[in-house]
Amino acid sequence: MTIQSLKADTLYRASVLTGLDTEYSSTKGLEPLDEIVGQERAQLAVEFAMSMKEKGYHIHPA
């Protein structure tokens, strides 16, 4: 198996936003969220880890 380098222009794709209404041209007017979107399992894991009372446990990304 040969590992090949990838060029940045093959990894980047710009979003085309021309079909959006002008009111959606910026997120500046949106209300901030008080929750994490789409990460339920990760959030439960961190909440579980934070609730442990014993010392010696660490939280780190896998």
In short:
Helices cover 26% and strands 0% of the residues. The two termini are 25 Å apart.
Overview of the structural elements:
By secondary structure, this protein is mainly alpha-helical. Helix content is 26%, strand content 0%. The chain contains two helices and no strands. The chain has helices at residues 8-11, 40-51. The mean pLDDT is 83.
Secondary-structure blueprint of this entry?
Layout (H helix, E strand, L loop, with lengths): L7 H4 L28 H12 L11
Tally of contiguous helical segments: 2
Question: How would you sum up the major sheet?
Answer: none
The helix-and-strand class reads mainly alpha
Number of strands: 0
**Element-by-element helix/strand order:** HH
**Strand residues, percent:** under 5%
Q: How far is the first residue's CA from the last residue's CA?
A: 25 Å
- As residue ranges, the low-confidence spans are none
